[in-house]
Description:
By secondary structure, chain A is of the alpha/beta class. Helix content of chain A is 40%, strand content 22%. In chain A, strands 2-1-3-12-11-4-5-10-8-9 form a ten-stranded mixed beta sheet, sandwiched between helices. In chain A, strands 6-7 form a two-stranded antiparallel ribbon. Chain A has a two-stranded parallel sheet with strand order 13-14. The longest helix of chain A is centred in the N-terminal third of the chain and has 19 residues, at 18-36. The interface between A and B is large, with 61 and 61 residues. The structure holds 3-isopropylmalic acid (2 copies). One 3-isopropylmalic acid sits between chains B (79, 93, 96-97, 253) and A (198-199, 229).
Amino acid sequence: MTAQPAKKLLVLPGDGIGPEVMREVTRIITWLEEKRGLSFDITEDLVGGASLAEYGEPIRDEVIEKARAADAVLFGSVGDPRWNHVGFDKRPELAILKLRQELALFANLRPAKVFDALVDASTLKPDVVRGLDIMIVRETVGGIYFGNPRGIETLPDGSKRGINTEVYTTSEIERVARVAFDLARKRSGRVCSVEKCNVMESGLLWKEVVTDLHAREYKDVELSHMLADNCAMQLVRNPRQFDVIVTGNLFGDILSDLASMLTGSLGMLPSATLGAADSHGKLPALYEPIHGSAPDIAGQGIANPIAQILSFAMLLRYSFNMQDEGQLIEDAVSNVLESGLRTADIMSDGKTRVSTSVMGDAILGELDK
Amino acid sequence: MTAQPAKKLLVLPGDGIGPEVMREVTRIITWLEEKRGLSFDITEDLVGGASLAEYGEPIRDEVIEKARAADAVLFGSVGDPRWNHVGFDKRPELAILKLRQELALFANLRPAKVFDALVDASTLKPDVVRGLDIMIVRETVGGIYFGNPRGIETLPDGSKRGINTEVYTTSEIERVARVAFDLARKRSGRVCSVEKCNVMESGLLWKEVVTDLHAREYKDVELSHMLADNCAMQLVRNPRQFDVIVTGNLFGDILSDLASMLTGSLGMLPSATLGAADSHGKLPALYEPIHGSAPDIAGQGIANPIAQILSFAMLLRYSFNMQDEGQLIEDAVSNVLESGLRTADIMSDGKTRVSTSVMGDAILGELDK
Ligand SMILES: CC(C)[C@H](C(=O)O)[C@@H](O)C(=O)O
Ligand SMILES: CC(C)[C@H](C(=O)O)[C@@H](O)C(=O)O
């Protein structure tokens, strides 16, 4: 029993497979409360298409406030093709975009790691990906996602013009580069900064700011620079050349998805999106799986719950400083994989195919050992 | 002998390995003139770092005018790290950007094709890439590469702000989509249009315009839509699902490089960038290998000349309507690969490693047969 007040956790399952995989996390939370004497102050709410259906908006201000008040947010996934034609201000995706921006969650940490037991799940040759362990640090509250002017205007002849603006300032670049350098110090000590400085001035500024910060404060870290198109190629050619990659919002979106697909097991990969600690040391933080809402398999009970479970383990470690419990969960997941159980997405010859809930059962069973 | 005037060809070798691989093309041109009675009106000039060194600018107006006057441009590659720190208006890359824009070369056709003899050169499993044949149609004169406002400004506190603007209009999207649909009709009849419509209004307009054009004129072609991040993943997961991909300038830059790296033989892939035919039926066109200037191996005589040679074959077919000669060259390349010769980039066990010029000799030898 701990004397600290129960940690406040906001749970936002979202759309598609979100609720299914989140259910397995709540079973683990119950286990932690019953068997480890922990207690969490949990609130759950709707976001994305689920919130649009109920409240007519992808996320309510009330939910943003709950997120601000929480010690951490555990997010599922948003996106639902049924809302494809409803207009730009009614996209389910606005839920995650607003959370990132309102809470100033500027650094998205996306690991691309190959689990030894799953090396064959990759479409890449085992020799190319065995032992792969990249961390992509993606800026998430700036760039072309949020810059103004933006919109679609009608021209005099009736045709249209779509506009978006990429903006990055010195301070926006510096704070996310700092996260990357700090992480590299705890890893293999190498950062690769990625932009298109040969075409975009915002990329040129990106490169300059990262170079300056490195010279001033991080000379012990090895820094390299790469163009985004080359980075996409190098991730396919020889992904193990990378340790930490730091890049802007749009390139990060594409390159981190690419990197995670190299592992062949998207259903395994968690992520964290972090803000800046306030004067009381409180760090705004949101954890979510890398995979999306996967509407094509939603409701069938076959989704892989592991990315969501590992996102929760990451939350326990980073936000609640519960290292032991994080480790327990990560070990349980490893052991279940070693024992040969697989959900459909990571299935291979000779393994046992199981449903979402049987995978959850097995992980709980391991925790009980 | 033909009664037509000799076709005007502008040859721009550029930087790095550009001149080395272009040399092998000029030997083939000589062969065509001597052995097939063809005659070409050839001009050669400097671009990129080579032009910066000689004239202080990456491309002279005079060269743009020569390109405009030519029946086709054969381009090598530009980019030279020695010019990295010289300022945004002195980048070697401006040579290709200006050529694209001044000649309104709006559609870049980039095939990603796996040669049977080279299936093992890919880092992907043979089963995933065998028979791969994708055509990426990338818009090349619009989007964030050319939009205004752009630049780096200094803020009152001395920090900086980098800005770029993504702009697409209905007509810019329509003309490149038309190229993609027309190509699909000659291939497997499928187009996948790629954007980030869940985040960018310019992407939303892109999707709408492609959808409308399809409904009006191309119902016989199968059209699908994909987000750019998902497309990067799908290219790794199952690249053979694609036939023609059409996308904007920036996404096209990244995704086409990614797609070509899937083949494992970047040194093999040609590309064409086309404009709109004028009232005399003259089509502005530039041909270049997909690979860049590869400064790390320049001057060693080990670069693969095949992408440059196949770019020339593509030029003969598309711009000069010399189908037989195009075919001759393509067959010669195939036969040389079948015979087991390989440059370093596509080397594998049991094959014979050869230099740039020996590869050129072998292709000429095949032509002579
Ligand atoms: C849902 C979508 C808006 C989002 C993004 O593009 O950032 C997603 O792709 C991600 O990477 O988290
Ligand atoms: C050289 C560079 C400006 C260019 C681009 O980004 O378009 C290159 O990467 C390409 O794809 O042709």
